[in-house]
What does this fold into?
Amino acid sequence: MKPISQVIGTMPAMSIAQPLRIDSEQIASFVNAVFDQLKSIFPAWSAAWKTQGDIDNAKKIWIIAFAENGITTKKQVSLGLKACRSLKTDFLPSIGKFIELCKPTPENLGLPDPETAFKTASMRLYKPLHPVLEATIKEVDSYDLRCGRVSFKQFEYVYMNKVNCFANGEPLTKKVNSAITNQSDKPKGLEAMNITADQAIEKRIAEQGISKNAKEARAQALAMLGLKDRKNG
It folds into this structure.
């Protein structure tokens, strides 16, 4: 096995767009470096690893856990260590906790949390947004989103998938599993036909700039015909 310094030193610069894939030998070496950093971050590390044998056994478990849970990029581990540095404890996290910390969140990627993203996307005023948000809006359908026909749960599912694509350097155009909604919740038969018809009418009204307020719509219609509103005049 290569020395830690050699493995780390030969690793290319990490970027979100080009994640570094780590093979089995690199994972083993990288875990050594991770353990060294964890010891520096958590002064009470010896409470979990009392002997060199404990450390060696823990490394084996962490290597397996990394491989099983898809922790295969230097960026992922860096996110985990960054999160560890903000934990208010002197004691080591479990491997399960560390793996969770390695998973990208919108916040540590400079993106809004799902709730804020949902509000921003629902009320957007046609100004440029982050590519992740743009891709999410496009996939859930911007018209349905503005009309309130996309639930927060649906939006969050797509948004978090786009966040993961962004973090792993995958194209944002990659389609999310189409089964993002509970099929039993979808309207069927006549109800579905009525909703479709209503959507078409609302879209046409929006395109023509007609107000949804009955009084304002009446005034607009009369103005278009060059007539005076006797009811209100």
